[in-house]
Amino acid sequence: MQNAYLIHGTSTKDDDWFPWLEEACAPQINLDRISLPNPFAPQAAEWNDAVDQQVPATDGLILVAHSLGCITALRFVARHQIHDVRLLLVGAFDKGLPTYPELDSFMIPVPDYRQITPKVSKATVITAKNDPIAPYRDSINVAHQLGAKLIVQPTGGHFLTSDGFSAFPLALKELQRLSK
Q1: Active-site annotation holder among 11, 67, 139, 179
Q2: 67-95 in b/e burial notation, b at 16+ Cβ within 10 A?
Q3: Residue 29: CA count within 13 A, CB half-sphere
Q4: Which residues, in sequence order, are CB contacts of 23 under 8 Å at separation 6+?
């Protein structure tokens, strides 16, 4: 059994498709949905500390991240001497969002991809053209920076329960692919 870790965004580990994915990928993959402090008023330093406490910095690490969790995952990879990292990033962005200026300070500094890409062996970025939160072109940029597989859906919004995503078979398929 492989271990993977899910880093949520401005929600909780029990929201959206996260519990479904944990159940759906078992027993082949043990998905640990980590908890982040103050998810609705996030502070980058607090989130970085929480991830460091809950995710072992080991080679072969699999990280699943959604929304603001994506930049948190990228920063984790940048800060640790690890190799063969596999990333599944959903609704990813690495710069401020026009509709959420209150997150601008969280976005600084921009991830240093020169520190990240040599450590990543496989990555997938999933986005939707109709994402009202994170412009899909931002996800395309993250995928390009990582050399990741890019999946652009015509619809899906920000892949929240309110967008119809209490289950997410595409994320399961990509997680299984990344784990091989």
Answers
A1: 67
A2: bbbbbbbbbbbbebebeebbbbbbbbbbe
A3: 26
A4: none
Provide φ and ψ at 100, rounded to 5°.
-135, 65
Q: Is 29 helix (H, G, I), strand (E, B) or coil?
A: strand
Q: If you average pLDDT over residues 47-63, what whole number do you get?
A: 98
H helix runs in 12-65, sequence order: 18-25, 44-54
Active-site residue, selected from the candidate residues 11, 16, 66, 158: 158
DSSP SS3 for 5: strand
Model pLDDT, residue 33? 98
Which pLDDT belongs to residue 97?
95
Q: Is 131 a catalytic residue?
A: yes
User: Which residue of the set 16, 66, 94, 131 is catalytic?
Assistant: 131
Reading the block at residue 49, the tokens are 């500390």
User: Which ranges constitute the DSSP H helices of 55-135?
Assistant: 68-79, 113-116
pLDDT at position 104 is 96
Catalytic residue status for 158? yes
- Catalytic residue at 138? no
> What is the Cα–Cα distance from 165 to 148, expressed in whole angstroms?
23
The pTM score is: 0.98
Q: How confident is the model at residue 1 (pLDDT cuts 50, 70, 90)?
A: confident
